[in-house]
Amino acid sequence: MQIKQRIKRFIKREGRRPRILVSNMGRKSHGQDTHLLASLLAETGFDVDISPLHQTPRGTARMAIENDVHLICFLCAEDNHKKLVTDLVKVLKAENAENVGIIIGGDIPPSDYDFLYGAGVDHILNSASIDSQAINRLLDLFG
Length: 143
What we know:
By secondary structure, the protein is an alpha/beta fold. It has helices at about 5-15, 30-45, 55-65, 80-95, 115-120, 130-140; strands spanning about 20-25, 45-50, 70-75, 100-105, 125. The protein is globular, with a radius of gyration of 14 Å.
């Protein structure tokens, strides 16, 4: 099924577009990549929120909850992606928001995938670039 049809089906079922928060956690920045990803997702049919640069896991979780997003997607340019994911999952659980999905992208070594999936990540983007196949995988997370 085509992406636009899947988005329309989601809207009909949920009464709104799928909403995603594109965040930038950590000290190093993926600012330009974050904006490119957010633009692509918005053009595809998602409602997209963008967090400020250098966001903390707590700040990201709070923004996701306040904006009632379905997914958080963050790009990580640091080696501390394991800690960022673990902290983000802890905050979401503490706020009873375990239903918010987590997607991570950036320079993630394949050796960390099992840890990240076990910690609560729903999908790992292999790079900041995203194609129709990746969009369809994101839409799969919405059921």
